[in-house]
Design goal:
Layout: H1 7-12, H2 16-23, E1 42-43, H3 51-67, H4 71-112, H5 121-134, H6 138-150, H7 153-196, E2 202-203
Parallel strand pairs: 1-2
Helix pairs in contact: 3-7, 4-5, 4-6, 4-7
Length: 205
């Protein structure tokens, strides 16, 4: 029974470089190509993802925007963030209470149910156990709402600045590590090609 790596060899025949480059897709440097079509060209060089650079630009722009605000703008921004946080916390608490009510009502029915035989007692116990572990405690949601209302508007502004700065630090670090990883992947493929004198299936994209 051919595998995804031997099917082409068995059906059409392959050179050794073609076969080894196909099998190489199962390894770290080319793992992203594992599910790609077998005839998809393996690049000569890998490029870093734009994910971290794009998010780094966004975070930098956001930090600059926040830091350029005057006093009244900062206060207004913080109040807007506070209003959103309070609204979200209130909605979460309302949902939590509704879920708890439904579960409590079902638990009352389950407790009132008389199992038809002793063998069914385990089912009743299981039902009650499932309802109990699924029942959300409203205390946490209540505390979140209280905290959201108590927190000063400027604290929300400061939090936004802190998040933007943290995002810059994170994406700067991750982008640097991504560059190193991609360079290692490119070197791994270069060394593999050199070892077999392979030039087939090279893509310069």
């Amino acid at each position: 029974m051919p595998t995804g790596y031997t099917a082409k060899l068995i059906k059409d025949g392959q050179t050794f470089p073609e076969f080894i480059m196909g099998c190489a897709r199962a390894f770290g440097a080319l793992i992203d190509m594992r599910d790609a079509p077998n005839d998809a060209a393996i690049p000569e060089k890998f490029e870093p993802s734009k994910f971290h650079t794009e998010h780094l630009v966004e975070a930098t722009d956001e930090l600059n925007r926040l830091q350029s605000m005057n006093g009244s703008e900062k206060e207004a921004f913080g109040q807007s963030e506070k209003d959103a946080a309070v609204k979200h916390s209130a909605e979460s608490l309302e949902q939590c209470r509704a879920e708890r009510l439904r579960l409590d009502e079902m638990a009352a029915q389950a407790r009132a149910w008389n199992p038809p035989t002793p063998d069914h007692r385990e089912l009743k116990d299981f039902m009650l156990q499932q309802l109990d572990v699924s029942n959300p405690g409203v205390e946490y949601s209540e505390r979140c709402l209280i905290d959201a209302r108590k927190k000063p508007a400027m604290a929300y502004y400061v939090g936004a600045v802190s998040r933007a700065a943290s995002s810059i630090t994170y994406h700067t670090k991750e982008n640097a590590e991504e560059i190193v990883r991609v360079a290692g992947r490119s070197e791994w493929v270069r060394q593999l090609r050199a070892s077999i004198g392979d030039t087939a299936g090279v893509s310069n994209d």
